[in-house]
Design goal:
Strand content: 15-25%
CATH superfamily of the largest domain: Ribosomal protein L11/L12, C-terminal domain
Structural class: alpha+beta
Distance between the termini: 45 Å
Order of helices and strands: EHHEEHEHHEH
Number of helices: 6
Shape: elongated
Helix content: 25-40%
Number of domains: 2
CATH architecture of the largest domain: Orthogonal Bundle
CATH class of the largest domain: Mainly Alpha
CATH topology of the largest domain: Arc Repressor Mutant, subunit A
Number of strands: 5
């Protein structure tokens, strides 16, 4: 039976410290090799937290599966933000264009439950509500109403 170690690491900057080192130590794998492989696979996500799964078989061979960063991390990266708004009702910290929302929806396609691009963009807009970010210059909830009313049908 394979052992599985799951962790959230900084893209391209995983280290032998917590959370990976203590979890991998008892498994008997070469921690340095595992860390190097994780950093190689996650370097495209530098500056973001990335979910990683290390699968270790009985012979101490390992396989690394990299998930996509959380939606909030992708939005912050695309908009160049350090964090979301501390007061989402009054302080808006950025505006996500429809094209960027579609790009993020495509990046997260495997993790979202929406059946089509329109539904996945609606999920992304829901995340924007909690971050204090407008979409296409509109409050996220107003954007969602506009999408449901068909105002954006020609762009999906």
């Amino acid at each position: 039976m394979a052992d599985i170690v799951e962790a959230l690491v900084d893209g391209g900057k995983a280290s032998a410290g917590p959370p990976l080192g203590p979890a991998l130590g008892p498994k008997g794998v070469n921690i340095g090799q595992v860390i190097a492989a994780i950093n190689e696979k996650t370097k495209a996500f530098t500056g973001m937290k990335v979910p990683v799964k290390v699968i270790i078989d009985e012979k101490k061979n390992f396989e690394i599966k990299v998930g996509t960063p959380p939606t909030t991390a992708l939005i912050k990266s695309e908009l160049g933000l350090k964090s979301g708004s501390s007061n989402t009702r009054t302080d808006k910290v950025g505006n996500l264009t429809l094209d960027l929302a579609k790009k993020i929806a495509d990046m997260k396609q495997d993790d979202l439950i929406g059946a089509d691009l329109k539904a996945r963009v609606m999920e992304i807009s829901g995340t924007c509500v909690s971050m204090g970010i407008t979409i296409d210059g509109k409050e996220p909830k107003k954007f969602q109403k506009a999408v449901k009313a068909g105002e954006y049908d020609d762009q999906f």
